[in-house]
Design goal:
This protein has two helices and three strands; from the N terminus they run E-H-E-E-H. The chain has helices at residues 26-29, 58-65; strands at residues 14-21, 35-42, 48-52. The N and C termini lie close together (11 Å).
């Protein structure tokens, strides 16, 4: 049996945000933010998962979050 919804609370609504982060070494020292992620988060409890933006399609990410 496959359950749908947030892994923490079972809520069925999620939203996405885009974030960028610095890496290590010189990129951290120079504050170069070259790592880009899509964050999928539950609108009820805030549980979040990060997906590498280069390897994911926005339309499929929410489906991955809900299983």
């Amino acid at each position: 049996m496959s359950e749908k919804g947030c892994m923490k609370c079972g809520h069925t609504e999620a939203k996405t945000k885009e974030i960028a982060t610095s890496g290590t070494g010189f990129s951290k020292l120079l504050d170069v933010q070259h790592n880009h992620f899509t964050v999928v988060y539950c609108t009820n409890c805030g549980y979040s998962e990060l997906y590498n933006k280069q390897s994911s399609k926005a339309g499929n990410i929410v489906d991955l979050f809900f299983g």
